[in-house]
């Protein structure tokens, strides 16, 4: 059964909730909205030796998600009529050759409101909204599609300075692109010219395979492909400010599926991160996932942070970058 979007659900058996005991939920939420997260250097300089913060998660609510969607990018949106009636939705990029689309999906029902297919030679990747345009990358290609947000119309093809498209977000004025390497590239949205780059590092180690990107409160939130981990990255110097441990979320979902749902497409990896800045809500999903989750981040107490940080670095930083030739 899919929970109502307005209801808060708690999973007593979820191991991630053990960290919640004794913590006030408002305090955890306070950390999520920025007070507990390290700020980017442009806002408040921090010592490079400062250890990243560490968070676990709590599932607030779960919602139906198209199990056929090979999710590559997710972006929250909201539209309101003159009468004040508002609809929450997601722009979603779905991949695979011959199946790739850009979609506008109603949040409450998961219903596709409108969609547009990509040419068969394009394997869609990340997506982001900047101004009145949506920008959608393609895998193993510099090709990017640009659409009008109003109706996904006026599609035009652009060329990025990268040979491989993975994740994309923006800082309000510039696009930020990833290509499976530890490097993030800032791009002019009009000309697609490269502006500058940052290498994502944690304690001197490069952090590759950054996939879905999301701009959250002045920093970049990224999932690591093939891992149930998120990193929060300082855009000023590429330093990892925080780790989010999402391990167990795929197993939790698999255990919640009905017998009929288990007959559906094989579950793939976590790969969808969306942020509702006004409502302060964080959403995650994955490729071929029948569920989309709203989650809250729970800060790990200082006395447990060191050991978990070491564990996350070991589990989530990909060492063998020869996978897919260093590309996905």
UniProtKB/TrEMBL annotation:
Keywords: Transferase. The keyword Transferase applies. Pfam families: Glu_cyclase_2. One of its GO terms (molecular function) is glutaminyl-peptide cyclotransferase activity. SUPFAM superfamilies: YWTD domain. This is Glutaminyl-peptide cyclotransferase. It comes from Auxenochlorella protothecoides (Green microalga).
């Amino acid at each position: 059964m899919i929970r109502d979007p307005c209801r808060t659900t708690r999973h007593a058996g979820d191991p991630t909730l053990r960290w919640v005991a004794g913590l006030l939920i408002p305090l955890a939420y306070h950390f999520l909205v920025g007070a507990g997260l390290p700020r980017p250097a442009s806002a408040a300089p921090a010592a490079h030796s400062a250890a990243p913060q560490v968070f676990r998660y709590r599932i607030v609510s779960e919602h139906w998600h198209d199990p056929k969607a090979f999710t590559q990018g997710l972006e929250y949106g909201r539209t309101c009529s003159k009468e004040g009636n508002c609809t929450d939705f997601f722009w979603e990029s779905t991949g695979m050759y011959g199946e790739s689309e850009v979609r506008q999906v109603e949040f409450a029902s998961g219903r596709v409101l409108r969609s547009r297919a990509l040419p068969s030679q394009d394997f869609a990747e990340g997506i982001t909204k900047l101004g009145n345009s949506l920008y959608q990358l393609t895998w193993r290609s510099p090709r990017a599609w640009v659409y009008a947000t109003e109706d996904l119309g006026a599609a035009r093809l652009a060329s990025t300075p990268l040979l491989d498209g993975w994740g994309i977000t923006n800082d309000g004025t510039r696009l930020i692109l990833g290509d499976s390497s530890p490097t993030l590239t800032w791009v002019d949205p009009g000309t697609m010219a490269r502006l500058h780059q940052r290498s994502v590092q944690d304690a001197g180690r490069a952090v590759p395979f950054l996939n879905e990107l999301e701009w959250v409160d002045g920093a970049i939130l990224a999932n690591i492909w093939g891992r149930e981990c998120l990193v929060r990255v300082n855009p000023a110097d590429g330093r990892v400010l925080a780790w989010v441990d999402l391990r167990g979320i795929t197993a939790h979902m698999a255990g919640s599926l009905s017998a009929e749902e288990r007959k559906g497409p094989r579950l793939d990896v976590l790969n969808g991160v969306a942020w509702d800045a006004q409502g302060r809500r964080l959403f995650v999903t994955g490729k071929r996932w029948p569920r989309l989750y709203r989650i809250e981040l729970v800060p790990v107490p200082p006395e447990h942070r060191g050991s978990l940080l070491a564990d996350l670095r070991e589990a989530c930083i990909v060492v063998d970058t020869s996978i897919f030739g260093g590309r996905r």
